[in-house]
């Protein structure tokens, strides 16, 4: 997801609130369409930029003037856009299968000011490969790249107001071929009175937990959309799903008129409350926007403790902590933060016993490692040294390592 600066939305919200006051208060500012917005030319070292040998390209631009009739402090969101043809007619959409005719692309990163903004050379090259669909051997030796910047005021629901585009500047670049990795599966987060400590806070594992990918499921290579799930105990205290923990609740699933009726991105939706306490499967298909919550068929074991075990502790027990600690919770999710050396072997097991243990093979994504735990399975090998948050669900056997 694109990064949105929350303070910009707050400033806009304040301006919008002032704008919506009584009509007879002539001192209230009003949003107006900006007319001035300049992207500065840059000096190219040697006249050409080799993207493979460069760290970044530094851009600067002026703030659009005005955004209110009284020049009140409204901070727009800036997006850098690229074209390899000089035309900006049809934007490339990463969620579309067919982008035939697209002639420009927006970079994922957004910015809150235009002073000495460093755009990584890698992100420029990646965007051009996406836009043009270059295969190995098809990348041109040099390219005349056109660059512009879009500015718009965004509210908490990502609606844009009064967009304006800068002038276009030209850069001479040397692109290179890179293998584009498939997008990580799109993961949503569970939060609320039925989740973790029930506090609705933002700390991973103690306040919120991620949903899980499903073994054998397919995820869109461009968007990461597909089916994800979580299986665990719900007491009826209420919960919601969040698409991101830093988007000010812009992406969320809540309850509509009654249990079984769910609504997406509705800030007025209610908490999802199951009719009776028990083990449930929460399933969300992010490709089709279908959410289902059904009773789980089975009675999973309730464990007093879980541990990680491996070469790092001589195959002893390093105890994990329960995620769900609210009053009346039945916990089936566990976590621990641990620092591994590269090549460490590990499993997740019942505390004090090997009767229940999970191993397998890690799948690597940019945001960490996943494994679908197998009873008595192979030792899991940690490929890269570092500090990880380890999450484990004892019903599904799903293991996730998030690098800190």
What does this structure look like?
The protein has helices spanning 6-19, 121-132, and strands at 49-50, 56-59, 77-83, 105-111, 117-120, 143-154, 160-165, 169-174, 189-192, 208-210, 212-213, 227-234, 239-242, 252-255, 262-264, 278-285, 290-295, 306-310, 318-319, 321-322, 333-340, 345-350, 357-359, 363-365, 368-372, 374-375, 380-381, 386-393, 398-403. It is mainly beta. Strands 1, 3, 4, 6, 7 and 8 form a six-stranded mixed β-sheet that branches. Strands 18, 19, 22, 23, 26 and 27 form a six-stranded antiparallel β-sheet that branches. A six-stranded antiparallel β-sheet has the order 20-21-28-29-25-24, with no helix packed on it. β14 and β15 (262-264) form a beta hairpin.
Properties at a glance:
6-stranded mixed β-sheet; 2 helices; 404 residues; mainly beta; 6-stranded antiparallel β-sheet
The description of the largest β-sheet is:
6 strands, mixed
Low-confidence stretches: 1-25
Mean pLDDT: 89
Helix tally equals 2
Beta-strand residue percentage:
35-45%
- Give the number of DSSP strands: 29
SS class: mainly beta
Distance between the termini: 19 Å
The radius of gyration over CA amounts to 25 Å
Fraction in helix: under 10%
Tertiary shape: globular
In summary, what is this structure?
The chain is mainly beta and 404 residues long. It contains two helices and 29 strands.
């Amino acid at each position: 997801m694109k990064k949105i600066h929350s303070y910009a939305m707050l400033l806009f919200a304040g301006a919008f609130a002032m704008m919506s006051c009584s009509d007879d208060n002539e001192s209230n500012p009003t949003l107006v369409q900006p007319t001035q917005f300049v992207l500065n030319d840059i000096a190219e070292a040697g006249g050409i930029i080799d993207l493979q040998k460069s760290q970044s390209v530094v851009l600067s631009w002026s703030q659009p003037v005005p955004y209110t009739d009284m020049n009140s402090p409204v901070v727009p969101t800036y997006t850098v856009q690229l074209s390899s043809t000089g035309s900006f007619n049809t934007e490339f959409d990463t969620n579309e299968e067919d982008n035939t005719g697209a002639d420009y692309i927006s970079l994922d990163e957004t910015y809150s000011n235009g002073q000495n903004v460093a755009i990584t050379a890698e992100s420029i090259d990646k965007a051009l490969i996406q836009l043009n669909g270059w295969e190995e051997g098809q990348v041109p030796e040099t390219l005349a790249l056109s660059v512009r910047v879009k500015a718009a005021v965004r509210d908490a629901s990502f609606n844009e107001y009064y967009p304006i585009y800068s002038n276009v500047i030209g850069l001479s670049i040397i692109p290179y071929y890179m293998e584009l990795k498939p997008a990580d599966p799109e993961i949503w987060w569970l939060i609320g009175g039925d989740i973790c400590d029930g506090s609705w806070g933002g700390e991973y594992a103690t306040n919120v937990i991620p949903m899980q990918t499903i073994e054998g499921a397919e995820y869109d290579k461009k968007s990461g959309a597909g089916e994800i799930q979580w299986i665990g105990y719900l007491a009826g205290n209420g919960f919601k799903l969040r698409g991101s923990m830093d988007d000010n609740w812009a992406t969320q699933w809540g309850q509509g008129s009654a249990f079984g009726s769910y609504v997406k991105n509705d800030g007025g939706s209610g908490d999802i409350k199951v009719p009776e306490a028990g083990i449930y499967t929460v399933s969300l298909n992010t490709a089709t926007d279908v959410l289902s919550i059904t009773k789980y068929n089975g009675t999973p074991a309730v464990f007093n403790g879980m541990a990680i075990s491996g070469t790092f502790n001589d195959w002893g027990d390093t105890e994990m902590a329960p995620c769900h600690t609210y009053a009346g919770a039945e916990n089936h999710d566990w976590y621990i933060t641990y620092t591994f050396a590269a090549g460490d072997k590990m499993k997740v097991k019942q505390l004090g016993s090997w009767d229940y243990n999970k191993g397998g093979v890690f799948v690597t994504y940019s945001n960490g490692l996943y494994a679908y735990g197998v009873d008595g399975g192979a030792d899991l090998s940690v490929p890269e040294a570092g500090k990880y948050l380890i999450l484990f669900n004892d019903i599904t056997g799903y293991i996730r390592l998030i690098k800190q």
